[in-house]
Amino acid sequence: xxxxxxxxxxxxxxxxxxxxxxxxxxxxxxxxxxxxxxxxxxxxxxxxxxxxxxxxxxxxxxxxxxxxxxxxxxxxxxxxxxxxxxxxxxxxxxxxxxxxxxxxxxxxxxxxxxxxxxxxxxxxxxxxxxxxxxxxxxxxxxxxxxxxxxxxxxxxxxxxxxxxxxxxxxxxxxxxxxxxxxxxxxxxxxxxxxxxxxxxxxxxxxxxxxxxxxxxxxxxxxxxxxxxxxxxxxxxxxxxxxxxxxxxxxxxxxxxxxxxxxxxxxxxxxxxxxxxxxxxxxxxxxxxxxxxxxxxxxxxxxxxxxxxxxxxxxxx
Amino acid sequence: xxxxxxxxxxxxxxxxxxxxxxxxxxxxxxxxxxxxxxxxxxxxxxxxxxxxxxxxxxxxxxxxxxxxxxxxxxxxxxxxxxxxxxxxxxxxxxxxxxxxxxxxxxxxxxxxxxxxxxxxxxxxxxxxxxxxxxxxxxxxxxxxxxxxxxxxxxxxxxxxxxxxxxxxxxxxxxxxxxxxxxxxxxxxxxxxxxxxxxxxxxxxxxxxxxxxxxxxxxxxxxxxxxxxxxxxxxxxxxx
Amino acid sequence: xxxxxxxxxxxxxxxxxxxxxxxxxxxxxxxxxxxxxxxxxxxxxxxxxxxxxxxxxxxxxxxxxxxxxxxxxxxxxxxxxxxxxxxxxxxxxxxxxxxxxxxxxxxxxxxxxxxxxxxxxxxxxxxxxxxxxxxxxxxxxxxxxxxxxxxxxxxxxxxxxxxxxxxxxxxxxxxxxxxxxxxxxxxxxxxxxxxxxxxxxxxxxxxxxxxxxxxxxxxxxxxxxxxxxxxxxxxxxxxxxxxxxxxxxxxxxxxxxxxxxxxxxxxxxxxxxxxxxxxxxxxxxxxxxxxxxxxxxxxxxxxxxxxxxxxxxxxxxxxxxxxxxxxxxxxxxxxxxxxxxxxxxxxxxxxxxxxxxxxxxxxxxxxxxxxxxxxxxxxxxxxxxxxxxxxxxxxxxxxxxxxxxxxx
Lengths: 316, 239, 408
Known about the structure:
The complex is a heterotrimer.
Chain A: H1 22-32, H2 37-64, H3 70-75, H4 84-90, H5 93-123, H6 131-138, H7 140-143, H8 146-156, H9 162-169, H10 181-209, H11 213-221, H12 226-237, H13 239-255, H14 258-263, H15 275-285, H16 289-315
Helix pairs in contact in A: 2-16, 4-16, 5-10, 5-13, 10-13, 13-16, 15-16
Chain B: H1 3-7, H2 20-62, H3 67-79, H4 82-95, H5 102-126, H6 131-138, H7 143-171, H8 175-180, H9 189-194, E1 197-198, E2 201-202, H10 204-234
Antiparallel strand pairs in B: 1-2
Helix pairs in contact in B: 2-5, 2-7, 2-10, 3-5, 5-7, 6-7, 7-10
Chain C: H1 2-23, E1 27-33, H2 38-54, E2 58-64, H3 67-79, E3 86-90, H4 91-99, H5 107-110, H6 114-117, H7 121-127, E4 128-129, E5 132-133, E6 136-137, E7 144-148, H8 149-155, H9 164-174, E8 180-183, H10 190-202, H11 213-228, H12 240-248, E9 252-257, H13 262-268, E10 272-275, E11 293-297, H14 302-315, H15 318-327, H16 335-344, H17 349-355, H18 369-384, H19 390-407
Parallel strand pairs in C: 1-2, 1-3, 8-9
Antiparallel strand pairs in C: 3-11, 4-5, 6-11, 7-9, 7-10
C-alpha cells in the first residue's frame, strides 16, 4: 500500500503512514460533521437550477402543448391544444428525416471525435518539446467561433474549392459537396468532427493524467506491452471520465445547430436537417413556437434514450 | 486577401499582397469589446466553479438526499437546445430587469457552463481519495475546512480544466449575447464578429482577421492554464 | 420642526418633479435595424444628426440586430412590452407583425404625407390592410440581371438577354469551366423563393397555384440551367451574398441580383451592366417581387409614437428622400423620386422600370406567406438537385400549401 501524504495542514502526519483503519475514522468523522453540511454545499447550485434551469425547461414543455404562433405569442394568450403540436410533427415526413439524420450524425461524429481524441490524449501523455504549444494549437478548432469555422468549411467544400482541388490530385472529379444531399450530410459530419475532437481530447487527456504512474510501472515490470497497458489500465481507470465525455458529447452533438444552419441551412431540400435546425425553422422561419417546443421535447427524449443506451452498453 | 483571391478562379493560399489594413481595421473594431468578453467569461468561469465545485464534491462524497434528482436534472436541462432556452430566459430576465446587462448575460451563460461543470467535476471527484478528508476530519477540521485545504489542492487539475472550459464557452457564445444584449457598448467580441455576416454578403476582410483576433486571447488563456494543469500534477497527492 | 420638515420635503418633491418634467421633455426614439454595410451606417448617422438638429427634444438611438434576428427580436420585445419606437421590418413581414398586434396603425398621419399619394402600388399594398397603414417604406428594391461586360464582349454577345430564350443561349455560350454562365440563389431561405419569383410571376404563375402550367415552366426553366451545366449545382447552398462573391470573382458571367449589391460590385472594379429580368416572350413585362424595408411604428406610448411619426415625416421629405435612397441603394417607393434616380444613374434604371409592375410578396397568402415560401423553396431545391422531377416536386409543395391555407 502506498504512503498517503495529505497536504494542506502543516501538522505532523507521520502517525498515519501505513494502513489506516478507515471504519474507525469514518465513525469519528461522522460525529464531527453537521447534518446540513452536505446540503449547504449544494445550496447555491440548487437555487441556480430552480431559477434558471428548471423554469425554462418547464416553460418549454408547457409551450409544446399550446398553440403558440406569432399572433398568440405577442397577445399573450396561447390556447392549450393538447397533443396537436406533437401530432402535426410526427405526421410530417421531414420530421422523421431530421430524426434519422440526427441519430446518424451523432453516431458518426461521436465515433470519430472520441477515437481521435483518445488517440491524441494517449500520444500526448509523453513529454516532448513544444508540447503545450501543440496542445493549444489543437484546441483551435474548438476555440474558433463556429461562425468562422462554418463559413470556412462552406468555402472549402465549394465545388471549385480547395477540397475538390486536392481531390483532383487523387484523380477525383469535382464533387458537389454541399449541393448533393448525401455528400452534404458527409460534409457536415466532417466539419463537426473537426470542431468536436479537441473537446474529447483535452478531457480525456486530463483524465489520463490522473492515473498514477506507479500502476503503469508495475505493469511494465510484469512485462505488459504498451497496448496491453492501455486496454487494461488506462481504459478501465478512465471509465467515469469516459462516460461523462460520451454523455456530454452526445448531448452537444444532438444540439449542434450553428454549424449545420450556416453550412447548409438544412438543405438541400431538407436532406441535412437535424432536429435542432428543423425546430429552429419551425420556430423562427414559420413562427410556430408551440410546434418548435414540441420538436425540442422530442429531442430531449431522444437524448435521454441515447444516454440510457450508452449506460447500458457501459455496464457490459 | 480580397474575396477575389479567396473565391477566384485561381485560388491561392498565399495572398498576392498582404493587406494589413484588414487587420488594423479588425483590431480597431474589436478592441472595445475585448474587455466585455473578458469580464463575462472570467465571471462566468469563477462563479461556475464557486457554485459547482462544492456541489460536485458533496454529491459524490457527502451524499445529500436528492442528489440523483439534481444530477439527472442537470443532464436534462443540458439536453434542451439553446433556442428553446432563449425565450423563457428572456421573459424571466425582462421581469427582473436583467436584459441588456452584463450580470444577466453572465447568468445566462452559466446555464451553459454549470450543468457541464457539475457532470464533469462529478467524474473527476470520483477519482479523489476520500481518505485524505477523513484524515483531516480526524484532526478536527470541519467539512468546509477540509474541502478548502484538502480537496481543492488535490483536485486542482480537474478544476482548472473545467475553469478553462467555463471560460471558453461564454467566449464563443452567440445565442445568449444575441438575444440579451442590444446595447452596442455591452456587446462581447462574438457579436461584433457576427456583424460580418449580414444580409449583404459575408465581409471576409473582417471575418477572417477578426476570428483570429477573437481566438487569440482564448488560446493564450489555454496555453497559460495548461502549464498549470501539468504542474498541478507534480504537486499531486498520490506519489 | 415638523412643519419645516414637511415644507422642505414638499419643495424637494416639487423640484424633483419639475426637473423630471423638464428632463422628460427629451424623448428617445429607439430604431431597430439590420443595416450592416458601411455606407448604410453612414447614411443612418447622417439622418440622425440632421433630425436631432431640427428636433432638439428628440433623441435617436440605433440598435443593430442581425438580419435573421430582427423579426424574433421584434416579437420578443412586443411580448414583454418593451418595443422599440421604430423597427425596420422587411416588407413581406409587416402585415404579419401587425396582425400579431405589435404595430400601430398610422394611417391618419401617413395620408397627410405628400409622398404617400405618389407611392407605387406594390409597396403600398405591403403595408396596408384595408384602411389601416402599418408603416412607410424606406425604399424598395427588386431583382435584375447583372452581367459581366468583358465576358459578353469576349463571347461575341452584343446585347444583354431580353427573353428567356436569350438567357438560355447566352448562359450556355458564356459557360466555360470554371466560369458559369449564370448564377442565382436557391438556398434554404426566403432568398430562394425571392429569386425565383420574377420568373414565376413574369410567366403568369402563382405561388398558390404551383401545379399550373406557368409555374411548371418556370421551375423547369431553372432546372434546365443546372442540368445543362450553365448554372452551378452549388446554388442550392448559396445565399445572395455568396452569389455576388462568385460574380465579383469572375466565376459567373451573369447573376440575378438587386441594387443593394451595386456598391460592392463597383468596389471590385468589375466592368458590368444591369438589365431587367428577361421575360418569357418578347413584349411581355417583367413582374418582380418587392424588397425593401419599412419604417414601422410599434405600439409604445403616446409620446414615443408621436416622436416616431415625426421621424418618419422627416425622412419622407422629398428633398431628403432621394439622397437617403441613394445612400441605402434603394429605389425610392415614391414614383417621382424613383424616376429621378433612374435618370441620374443608368444602373438603377432597370429597377425603376420594373417598379410599375412590382408585386409585394404577401399578396399571395398574406400572413401564411412564410409557410408558403418554405414549401416553394423545398420544391425548388428538390428539382434543382434532381431529387424529384419538376412535376412531382411542385405537386408536393402544392399539397403543403393547401394545408397551410386551409388552417387559417
